[in-house]
User: Which sequence fits this backbone?
């Protein structure tokens, strides 16, 4: 499926506010409600829209600390990497996990209540994952930019 300008505009609108209904979207796109509904359905069917979520204010739910951890593994075999990935996925504090090319193996974005909570997480969860050798962590002092919308142009 090739995206046209209307599809791109539709995706931009939904990334900004996924609660917009087909009638509201159709007004922005200058399309009928039925045509808008079909486009949204097609974008979902073709995997452009994978899910719709609510974004929460992390401070209001008590998650005031963001940290980024570089994880170094003891070995780099397929089984070691797969086992680490399988286990890290289960940790609710880990918001994102990327395998990295470079001097370390994985980069994690972690959210916790505070520094004490992070320390507990590190000692009782992250450092105990299979094959973890070393963890280097950096703490965010402020959040300058945080977006969820991908640039489409």
Assistant:
């Amino acid at each position: 499926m090739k995206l046209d300008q209307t599809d791109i505009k539709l995706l931009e609108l939904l990334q900004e506010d996924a609660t917009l209904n087909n009638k509201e979207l159709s007004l922005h796109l200058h399309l009928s409600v039925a045509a808008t509904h079909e486009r949204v359905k097609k974008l979902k069917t073709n995997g452009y829209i994978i899910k719709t979520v609510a974004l929460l204010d992390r401070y209001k739910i008590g998650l005031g600390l963001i940290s980024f951890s570089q994880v170094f593994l003891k070995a780099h075999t397929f089984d070691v990497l797969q086992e680490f990935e399988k286990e890290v996925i289960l940790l609710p504090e880990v918001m994102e996990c990327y395998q990295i090319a470079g001097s370390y193996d994985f980069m994690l974005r972690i959210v916790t209540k505070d520094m004490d909570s992070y320390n507990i997480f590190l000692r009782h969860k992250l450092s105990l994952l299979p094959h973890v050798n070393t963890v280097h962590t950096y703490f965010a002092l402020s959040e300058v930019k945080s977006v969820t919308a991908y640039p489409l142009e």
